[in-house]
Amino acid sequence: MPVSALLRAVRGARVNELPSPEPVPDCAECARFLARLAATPAQTSEWTDVRVLWRRHLVAQHPVSGVGTSSC
Ligand SMILES: [Zn+2]
Question: Rounded to two decimals, what is the model's pTM?
Protein backbone atom coordinates (compact mmCIF):
# COMPACT_ATOMS: atom_id res chain seq x y z
CA MET A 1 0.00 0.00 0.00
CA PRO A 2 1.48 3.42 -0.91
CA VAL A 3 2.42 5.73 1.94
CA SER A 4 0.10 8.46 0.70
CA ALA A 5 -2.87 6.08 0.94
CA LEU A 6 -1.90 5.12 4.49
CA LEU A 7 -1.59 8.75 5.49
CA ARG A 8 -4.99 9.48 4.02
CA ALA A 9 -6.50 6.53 5.88
CA VAL A 10 -4.97 7.61 9.21
CA ARG A 11 -6.12 11.19 8.78
CA GLY A 12 -9.58 10.07 7.77
CA ALA A 13 -9.83 7.71 10.73
CA ARG A 14 -8.69 10.40 13.16
CA VAL A 15 -11.24 12.86 11.83
CA ASN A 16 -14.04 10.30 11.94
CA GLU A 17 -13.03 9.12 15.38
CA LEU A 18 -13.45 12.53 17.00
CA PRO A 19 -16.63 14.34 16.05
CA SER A 20 -16.61 18.11 16.45
CA PRO A 21 -17.47 19.16 20.00
CA GLU A 22 -20.91 20.64 20.62
CA PRO A 23 -20.93 24.17 22.02
CA VAL A 24 -22.94 24.58 25.23
CA PRO A 25 -25.47 27.42 24.67
CA ASP A 26 -24.73 29.77 27.58
CA CYS A 27 -20.99 29.23 27.80
CA ALA A 28 -18.67 32.02 26.67
CA GLU A 29 -15.72 29.63 26.57
CA CYS A 30 -17.54 27.29 24.20
CA ALA A 31 -18.43 30.23 21.96
CA ARG A 32 -14.78 31.24 21.91
CA PHE A 33 -13.66 27.71 21.05
CA LEU A 34 -16.25 27.50 18.26
CA ALA A 35 -15.13 30.81 16.76
CA ARG A 36 -11.49 29.77 16.99
CA LEU A 37 -12.19 26.41 15.37
CA ALA A 38 -14.12 28.06 12.56
CA ALA A 39 -11.25 30.49 11.95
CA THR A 40 -8.60 27.73 11.86
CA PRO A 41 -7.95 25.71 8.69
CA ALA A 42 -9.33 22.17 9.12
CA GLN A 43 -6.99 19.26 9.90
CA THR A 44 -4.01 21.41 10.81
CA SER A 45 -2.22 20.79 14.11
CA GLU A 46 -3.69 23.98 15.52
CA TRP A 47 -7.16 22.81 14.51
CA THR A 48 -6.58 19.52 16.35
CA ASP A 49 -5.26 21.45 19.36
CA VAL A 50 -8.38 23.60 19.54
CA ARG A 51 -10.58 20.51 19.43
CA VAL A 52 -8.56 18.77 22.15
CA LEU A 53 -8.65 21.86 24.38
CA TRP A 54 -12.37 22.28 23.75
CA ARG A 55 -13.04 18.62 24.63
CA ARG A 56 -11.00 19.05 27.80
CA HIS A 57 -13.06 22.13 28.64
CA LEU A 58 -16.32 20.23 27.98
CA VAL A 59 -15.28 17.39 30.28
CA ALA A 60 -14.15 19.79 33.02
CA GLN A 61 -16.92 22.37 32.83
CA HIS A 62 -19.91 20.51 31.37
CA PRO A 63 -19.68 16.94 32.68
CA VAL A 64 -23.46 16.48 32.70
CA SER A 65 -23.75 16.98 28.91
CA GLY A 66 -21.97 13.68 28.31
CA VAL A 67 -23.57 10.22 28.09
CA GLY A 68 -23.71 7.57 30.78
CA THR A 69 -22.90 9.89 33.67
CA SER A 70 -25.71 8.60 35.93
CA SER A 71 -24.60 4.97 36.15
CA CYS A 72 -23.80 4.41 39.81
ZN1 LIG B 1 -18.25 25.57 27.74
Answer: 0.64
